[in-house]
Amino acid sequence: MSEPALIRRELALKHGATIVIDPLNAPSVPAAVLAATENIGVHVAFDAAGTQAGLDGALASVRPRGTFVVVAIWSKKPTVDTNLIVSREINFTGVFLQPAIRSVSDVWGRRE
Question: Which residues are CB-neighbours of 8 under 8 A, at least 6 positions away?
Answer without folding.
Answer: 1
